[in-house]
Amino acid sequence: MSTSSEDLRAIALGEFATAGYSATSLHRIADIAGLSKSSVLYHFSSKEALLEAAVAPAIDRMEQILEGLESNSLAAEGRAAFLVEFVDFILQYRREVHIFINQGPSLVAVPVIDRANDLVRRLAAFFAANTASLEEKMRFGIALGGAAYMLCTEDSLALQSAPLDETRAALVAILTGLLSPVEAPQKTED
Amino acid sequence: MSTSSEDLRAIALGEFATAGYSATSLHRIADIAGLSKSSVLYHFSSKEALLEAAVAPAIDRMEQILEGLESNSLAAEGRAAFLVEFVDFILQYRREVHIFINQGPSLVAVPVIDRANDLVRRLAAFFAANTASLEEKMRFGIALGGAAYMLCTEDSLALQSAPLDETRAALVAILTGLLSPVEAPQKTED
DNA sequence: AACCTATCTGACCGATCGGTCAGGCACTGT
DNA sequence: ACAGTGCCTGACCGATCGGTCAGATAGGTT
């Protein structure tokens, strides 16, 4: 409820995403917030709890999207709707997604990250089940990891300060091209 | 020259890529190698030196590719040749590239990583100079980050144990689709 | 024999890590 | 005035970090 907790959550989220979880000390988070390390541990009982608070909303939303995806049919329009939903998700929670994608494998044994890893695996399994092709699986991995990377590396690349709706439209177009079932593939042999 | 040095380099490369540089202790590297921490520091004067030894070959190769790209013209066939060259590079040095891409921003102040970050920026600037479109820049970022992610997360995704040449062909096809200049863009207003 | 070098090791160091604890301070209700 | 509560703090703890150092061992050279 207090502003400090929310401030700390936001600061931690940014630092965990940019510098990495294990490379970010509680002391550093406290300094940025203008508090002492003890105060951070007053609001969050441990560093793990702070990570959990930072990424939990994104995981909940992700789980919600995935359940809807798995329960519904996979008609072409359903797939397109999912894609827009997923783009909005990744835009809203870009830092959280960046944490899952880049630090998920290294943060096993952290329960909240294990949940995220399971979700990624479920999503991958879903796509793999519908496409046995190696290239399609690779397209999925590139779309997922690439979007997470690109949206959190705007500065280092040349694409800072673009209007959100333009970014959104472009991302939908790119991911559609990457993930849509290839109806007219480059190899039309038969 | 001794096998220990090369073993340590390989172990460190794997651990730095999967667990992260700051999350990997010298003790852990020594344990995997069956040596003591002191022995690791005998072969490499510091943890940073070990990181540098692990990724330097990839950086050298990357720099070589980039110089060739910047000096040559950018005709369509030149671009296609670069893409194949780049795919082979990223396949050979996938773990090193994964380190650059995912831990580059957090490992500033490490000279060898700064070199890598500069190379990524130069590559991004090169693509940005030839394409002012936001979507093209995003495509570049997704291709770069996505390939690095996908090639190092084969296990978590569903695409383990594919023949290398199949992976190579698919990656060339995907990146070609992502990076080839859109000759018939959706916005043809003028 | 003596010597040198390469490789490896345990003991040790200061710094920093995440986390605990007792208490200070301001405010509120009684 | 008093007690309770929310927020914050410095002092402190054990563990682990990267790194140093003085040797131990082995093999090769003379």
UniProtKB/TrEMBL annotation, chains A, B:
Source organism: Lacisediminihabitans profunda
Pfam families listed in its UniProt record: TetR_N (PF00440)
GO molecular function: DNA-binding transcription factor activity; transcription cis-regulatory region binding
Keyword terms, alphabetized: DNA-binding, Transcription, Transcription regulation
Residue ranges flagged as DNA-binding region: 25-44
Organism domain of life: Bacteria
Domain HTH tetR-type, residue spans: 2-62
Name under which the protein is recorded: TetR/AcrR family transcriptional regulator
